[in-house]
Amino acid sequence: EQQRQRAEEERRQVEEQQRQRAEEERRQAEDQQRQRAEDQRRREQEQADDRRREDERQAEERRREEERRAEDRRREEERRTGERRRDDDRRNAEERRRGDDRDGDRDRRRADRDRRGPDGDFDRERMQRWLSERGERLEREPRFDAPPDARRVEQDRNRVIFDLGGGEIVVRHDETERLRRRAEEVYYDRLPNGFVRTTIERPGGVRIVTIEDRYGNLIERTRIERNGRQVVLFSAPREYYDRRERGRDRPRWRDPAIDLPPIQVTIPRNEYVLEAERADRDAYYRTLERQPVQHVDRTFSIEDVRYSERVRDLMPRIDLNTINFDTGSAQITRSEVDKLSDLAYAMERMIDDDPAETFLIEGHTDAVGSDNSNLALSDRRAESVASALTEVYGIPPENLVTQGYGEQYLKINTQAAERQNRRVTVRRITPLVNPVASGG
After folding, report:
1. What is the rounded CA–CA span in Å between residue 8 and residue 2?
2. Which of 55, 184, 406, 432 would disulfide-bridge 375, Cβ 3.0–4.6 Å?
3. CA–CA separation, 359 vs 428, rounded Å?
4. Residue 320 phi, psi (nearest 5)
5. Rounded to the nearest 5°, which phi and psi values hold at 112?
6. CB atoms within 10 A of CB 316
7. For residue range 339-364, what is the model confidence (pLDDT) as tens digits?
8. Closest CA to 150 of 126, 167, 132
9. Which residue, 429, 416, 384, is CA-closest to 178?
10. SS3 of the chain: helix, strand, coil, percent, to 5
């Protein structure tokens, strides 16, 4: 019995020990689980705190960035305002200078008118006789003689190339052909002493009367409005027709540059030669309205202006480097016709002010091809631009004169194909060819 009791006691002790160990293990497991849960909670709390601090830091950085941007915008606006103010000041100063130049030009023109009289070198009585006298009506377009002492070199379709002597090779064409387009009626009269009168009647009663000598040289052009107002666009100096009326033939062409002093250009280069790709329409107008860079006390014929570089250089010019032609082509694409809008605006504005304004359009080529073919090609290029100005923008064709110079004046000095050399230039020549004080 005692042994049984001892065994029972030992069994109870073992069970108690096992229960205690199990209880201890359970408590330890619960403690470990609580510890892990607490550690997880602390980690999540720390992560949440880190995210909150990061959000606050990013928000602060965004706020500071916005403040920096706002400050930069404020400074940029102040800079632009300052630049605009300086630009306005420069423009105002430039406008004042140009106004002074225009005032000076007006003073010079007024002095010229006072010195030369209201008609200057213009024979108004002779013009009226040319307009009114009866001549021999021609059934077809007149044929003109070759210029005195000139040698006919080549004919390229409707253009003839002449050697005037002394290395002067020129291309000539029928200047009135462009004016005859869309005319209601065209008729020709041969006048005494070999002069030819071409009369073009337009819708609305407007007449364009052009006088040429026996060689096809342009002597005078007049537009007669419906109300009878006569606008002289150009008129050659009296010496050009006085000899003929006295029964003496006209001598060969002589470059008037021989009698002119060396040219001196005192205005800035970018105002003397305007690059079209860097100009706006106001710059076009300012360039065209300028007076000769050097005072001259005479007028010139259209022939003088066409053939004498020295005479042409009296007037500032616009280099239409936005209009380029393909090799061997005189065609203008529609996209390039659109680039003539600023030039047309300036021309139209000037013609509105004075309907007697006359502009010379000069065609050029690169050095590829023969000299003669390039002369004819450049002449067609000038005519293409003149036609576009008339047909697309409504510039009166009688206010435009064209001439081709081939490869004589290369912009880029190269014998290779060069697109920049295939171009057109424009200048106003009214002060050179119009001896009348005003256009009416």
Report:
1. 10
2. 406
3. 4
4. -80, 70
5. -60, -45
6. 21
7. 999 999 999 999 998 999 999 999 99
8. 167
9. 384
10. 50, 15, 35
